[in-house]
Amino acid sequence: xxxxxxxxxxxxxxxxxxxxxxxxxxxxxxxxxxxxxxxxxxxxxxxxxxxxxxxxxxxxxxxxxxxxxxxxxxxxxxxxxxxxxxxxxxxxxxxxxxxxxxxxxxxxxxxxxxxxxxxxxxxxxxxxxxxxxxxxxxxxxxxxxxxxxxxxxxxxxxx
Length: 159
Fold this sequence. Notes:
By secondary structure, the chain is mainly beta. The chain is built from 2 helices and 10 strands; from the N terminus they run H-H-E-E-E-E-E-E-E-E-E-E. It has a single domain, classed as Jelly Rolls (Sandwich).
């Protein structure tokens, strides 16, 4: 009898290297990029077992809302334009950090963040999650910082 085990989860450093390696192969992703006015656009890219890899596009003002990735580590790299990531400080205030093309960011399990295109030009990014996304919790500003507002079961980078 053969026992099959799930692949081990990748660390944020391994995910970071993965998204950078995909970013360095624009022939794989550039021809399939799309932009839609109604919402951010995304599609799954090929990745190793146990990892979700996504290509996302962001028009100006498109973004997420504060969230975590459940039990998944994550990394993303900006391949076109500029995205702003917001992370809470100790008081729960969201602190912005801009990421130009070529910058990569990691997101540990349980880390709350938000990503938005606050610029005037479209942006494109590549994201990887390990283990694959199963759940995301979204947060809102409460009296004493960020508090969970809802948790969703999902296999996509946004509900």
